[in-house]
Design a protein that fits this description.
heterotrimer; A alpha/beta (381); B mainly alpha (334); C mainly alpha (297); A: 381 residues; four-stranded antiparallel sheet; 13 strands; 20% strand; globular; disordered C terminus; C: 297 residues; mainly alpha
Amino acid sequence: MLLSVRDLIVRFRTHDGTVHAVNGVSFDVDEGETLGLVGESGCGKSVSNLAIMRLLPRPAGHIEGGQVLFEDVDLTKLPEADMRDLRGREIAMIFQDPMTSLNPVLTIEEQLVETIRAHRPVTAAAARTRAIELLGMVGIAQPAGRLRSYPHEFSGGMRQRVMIAMALALQPKLLIADEPTTALDVTIQAQVLELLQRLTTEQGTAVILITHDLGVVAGMTRRINVMYAGFVVEAATTANLFAAPRHPYTVGLLHSIPRLDAAVDEPLIPIEGVPPDLRIPPVGCAFAARCAWRLPRCWTEIPPLDPLVPLEPGASVRTTGPAATHRVACWNPVTAEEAGLGAPRRPGFSAAPPPTGSRDVVVAADTPEAVLVEPAEASSP
Amino acid sequence: MLRFIIRRILGSIPVLFGLSVILFFFLRLLPGDPALTILGEHATPQLVAQMHEALGLDKPLYVQYLGYLGQLLQGNFGSSIIDNRSVLDSFLVRFPVTIELTIGALIFAVGLGIPLGRLAARHPNGWIDALVTVLSLFGISIPIFVLGYTLAFVFGVELHWLPTIGPLDPRLDVHTVTHFPIIDAILSRNPNAILDAFSHLFLPAIALGSIPLAIVTRITRASVIDVSNEDYVRTARAKGLSQHRVDDRHIMRNAWLPVITVIGLQVGGLLAGAVLTETVFGWSGVGSWVVTSIENHDYIVVQSLILIFATIFLAVNLLVDIGYAFINPRIRYS
Amino acid sequence: MSSAPTSVVVRAAPRASRGLWRDAFQRLLRNRPALLGLFFIAVFVIAAVLAPLLAPDDPAVGNLALSKQGPTLAHLMGTDLLGRDELSRVLFGARISLLVGVVAVAFGLFFGVIVGAIAGGVGGAVDTVLMRVTDVLLAIPGILLAIGIVASLGHGQIQIMLAVGISYAPIFARLLRGSLLALREADFVTAARSEGASPARILLRHLLPNALTPLIVAATLAMATAIIDVAGLGFLGLGPGDPRVAEWGEMLTDSARFLQNAPYLILFPGAAIVISAIGFNLVGDGLREAIDPRLKR
């Protein structure tokens, strides 16, 4: 096991209260494995990974519980100097916006060379040679000539290639790619993803790919964790997740994106409502307010991430690998037929109304800007 | 780059031209007759008319202006109507004192303001930040002369630590060579004189530098906090660079940019503030000359000095812009 | 999903500007430094308005026998060279500072708003010419422009107000023009234009009210500068020039010679200037944060 995140809790202390960004998230990554983290913005996928790197925005962000075991060492307890040595060398990161992720006043050479020399006792000349090699590796023409360039002289796709070169400079064991193609033109996205996949496979680098786009993870990752409001709500192999989604949120995600393989008459079904206010500590299932499958207990009890099919005696949950156990955090999972439809299909079933005096109502009364609206209004943008 | 410099220089020419127009017409059109100032209230009309002719005041305004502009272009700012000495000559004698004072204040403001701003930005809203915020609030709220007298009273009158009058003790008999008190003191090779020159500069520089100090501190703090939140700083941390390296190379290299612009803008305030500071501490630089010229209604001197100060201000900011372009590659290549 | 009634909490869109102002005001009241500033301003304004009632003595009449006496119970801030009660003079000085400061800033706003609105509203060659003139005036550093104007206009309160006001006008003009240009591209202005609103109506009804917000902040901060600049002019001998009028800057000039034996004559007027300026600076900063909460640290 390369990385094992256990019950990670991350909170932000802000002027407006405590933001419960990550609420007990666990996941594992094997050597050379690829894991997709999928969810809407603000679901905690980026925050969990910044927490792994201990790069949470200071002073607001804190790891308030759990462990991050990297090669059996708990990173949350590592001294800062050791952690710094690990960053870039063992775990590297690529960020969303290549326009802003490279320092505008330093040349590509300076930024590549300093990365190498921060971790390897090599001469500037040797680091420079390596930098040229890296630029060539990520497909930048005439790499030696481009070293002296500044980031603004590169296109977005080229900059992301430079970011990839920088991230892979020290052949890290784990690469965290946070929405690596979101800011790029559609035509460039595929090229960059292909490059990322080829290089990490060659180097045997494990990848955590963070994205809101199920289309991106489909071809890139072996397993997928779906996250919502700081929880992992469904975990499965990529094949299983697409073939048999079981969490209402996953089903909603799959139905809200156009798919080329979908039946012609299959309508797009948007997920209604908005993600919950993370400043309120979760009481029940975080998705309850937007869920058509919810039961009364969904409002009051947080569902655990449990195997979809009860394990046979003596068997244990597999968290990694091609045979990873399909798990879902839901009191009322979607059936196969419903997953195809995108809506509940049970005679006489209707989603449980919120309990009287529930937090939604309380919030509406307390916050001057908040108003109670009917669902029809709420769904209009 | 060269095109950028040339464009900036050409851009400031209309401003200088406009400045000469405004100052000329503004000060000429206003009530008060310079001839009367020179001759006294009881001059005969005939004498006044002769004086008008001598000063060229009998010609149409635009002719007067063109003549004035022609003189300006030859570097001739005219002569004082009080002692008839060339404004430029007197200026060159007095300006070194003002330069020394201004540079002293600038060193105080920048030398202290940047570290203070960085310190405050390290823990935004922490107690150091609060202290720095209060200090800079005082800095921009205290008039130079109030601070000047307070410093003079505490460190001069009460504690006797530092001298409060003039740039140099006249008893030391330092030869005037460059008109820069400190340089002259150094040339005298008298250690006491050197020490004396520096100690005389201390309080005026603090009084004059307090407002720029507050502003430089504020802008440094804000800029460092802004840059610290940039994505590329997170990238630098994610690469495993040391805090020191992230601070110096990735944060400060970018945070400098707005700070440099603001420092350039402070030079104007410093020159204007020198008027007050030199008056408080009895320095005979250009600043106190402005005051005596106003008292004497010596409008040529006032007009010329304002024009010279504005020109210096524009020139400094031109240099700052060019320097900015040098350290900011995004401008350098555009 | 739509089969069940669901309550969802959403944020209402920003309401009319009245709500925006009310929110800003509430944020201001939660900002403790700004409240302290409001308190300082209140003290300053009360001292200025009620000076005739509060002052124990006539600020213009002194008793030479009581020259330069330190603070006593009878004269809480001591007496000046002419034996006049310093407390009364500081109180009446607030009157001058407030009056001259407010009128000067109002002058500056008046000229600045006219020039800025024409430049930003009309644009084109008019804008270019007006902004060149503004550039020229801005090239004259700080208080020097005011010094030059007073020097030529002569002594007197009106002259000071005009001089200080004119020296601020280009700053306000620049600011207003800048926000007008930014707002012209804003979606709600495009919307108004597409609905066929006339240019004048767009300028007066949509652009100006929104562009005034930064001006209010700038004007508050300018009050602090105005108090300091007016005192500076007084200090340089360019004050009201009427010995019967107590003006903080002039009081300092008069007292500077007695720094050794009567430092309190510097201390009290000096403190009065500093406290008033701090008040306006704190409120100005607080307003800025209240109007644009993103700026908050």
